[in-house]
Amino acid sequence: MAKITVEALHKSFGDFVAVKSSSFTIEDGEFFCLLGPSGCGKTTTLRMIAGLELPTSGRIFLGEQDVTFKRAALRDIAFVFQFFALYPHLSVRQNIAFPLKSQGMPRSEIRERVGEVARILRISHLLDKRASSLSSGDRQRVALGRAIVRRPKAFLMDEPLGALDAEMRHVMTGELRALHDRLAATSIYVTHDQLEAMSMADKIAVMNRGIVEQLGSPREVYDRPSSLFVADFIGSPPMNFLSLGEGIAEGADKIRLANGHVDAPRILEGGVREGDLVLGIRPEHLQFVDEGALRGVVFGVEYLGSAQIVTLTTPHGVVRARAPADRRISVGERLGLELRTDRLSLFEKSTGRALALARNGGAAHG
Ligand code: ATP
Questions:
Q1: CA atoms 264, 267, 273, 276: torsion sign
Q2: What is the pTM of this model?
Q3: What is the spatial distance between Cα 6 and Cα 151, in angstroms, rounded to a whole number?
Q4: Ligand 1 atom 7: residue of nearest CA
Q5: Whose CA is nearest to atom 20 of ligand 1?
Q6: CATH fold group of domain 4-225
Q7: What is the mean pLDDT of residues 30-39?
Q8: Distance 114 CA to ligand 1 centre (A)
Q9: Residue 49: what pLDDT?
Q10: Which of 10, 20, 40, 158 to probe ligand 1 with, by most ligand atoms within 8 A of CB?
């Protein structure tokens, strides 16, 4: 397996820039997710790493080797596509063996490798079945088997579970991560599904309009989003954004809200203009209280079984809060909210970037 390094990777299609000067390193054995909305440049980035697309500029290293201009076939990387075309009339065994046969590997070795891969993927009982007779989940396992049987240096996967239904996707994300851990393979996984990325990745690159907005562990991108875009894209429901208008602070250490104030975290950098701040708080970091610094009227309640998502209109805009499942909450009810001030984020509205904060806890005051 190998480390993959991408340096200032850039791709234009005519005047359109699909990937803008992206740099990141995927450590040996890491599960790395490229995450972002449709059209943000994930697939283009992956195709350049695979050697299926040439970059306009920048460099790609596989281990210490510069592979930027090396043909895909010579990169020793396996690519798993969403609609992986299996040969329907061939058996599972023949499908998995196919890449080894094309390499001219001796029969006995092929038999051994296919057997091993089938055991890892728990599809030994399917080896003699035709690919066309399999369920979608099993077909995806065979597709994975065909990729891993070559023992490549890295695996690249482009929305490989996109064609599966929600339940099977859930099963396969668990299986994929377990498979990754067993093979200790360097893997790059493209998805627009933040839950998929959060549940599988060691590291996530959140992309937006061709730019890597943030690189970090699932915990980092969730707890410390680097921009309004990341804060909005990660989390379901996403982070709440409260526009602070002109009344930012009472002194330097309070943020004034419509019905009270909260202790402000110390901003570690200067130069923020008054009125240019947005306060971010996740739904689970709001607590229902009688009074609270933020008050609103309930206009929606989504019962999720394990919790409820309550939507309120407040003087600072629409806010969503997570409430315990057993609390009775009715539409039209007026409720107070307390903010966990150790979990606040602050963003500069004009640029969308998050401000670096010194965090020391504290409570909100009504
Ligand atoms: P999706 O999940 O929808 O595939 P993505 O993040 O993978 O999204 P890309 O497929 O990398 O996005 O595409 C990024 C942008 O580049 C898109 O706007 C797309 O239309 C454009 N693009 C991709 N390939 C080409 C091409 N060969 N010629 C022109 N534009 C292209």
A1: negative
A2: 0.88
A3: 22
A4: 43
A5: 39
A6: Rossmann fold (3.40.50)
A7: 96
A8: 35
A9: 95
A10: 40
Could you tell me if 287 and 294 are in contact, meaning their C-beta atoms sit under 8 angstroms apart? Answer: no
Residues with CB under 6 A from ligand 1: 13, 16, 18, 36, 38-44, 192
* pLDDT tens readout for residues 294-352: 999 999 999 999 999 999 999 889 999 999 999 999 999 999 999 998 899 989 888 99
Nearest-angstrom CA–CA distance, 294 and 292? 5
Look up residue 2 and give its two tokens: 């190998």
Q: Take atom 11 of ligand 1 and give the residue whose Cα is closest.
A: 41
The answer on pLDDT for 251 being more than 60 is: no
Tell me which residue has its CA closest to atom 9 in ligand 1: 41
Q: Which CATH number fits domain 237-364: 2.40.50.140, 2.170.130.30, 3.40.1280.10, 3.40.50.2300?
A: 2.40.50.140
Distance separating alpha carbons of residues 266 and 287, to the nearest angstrom: 22
Q: If you average pLDDT over residues 354-365, what whole number do you get? A: 63
Residue ranges covered by each domain of the chain: 4-225, 237-364
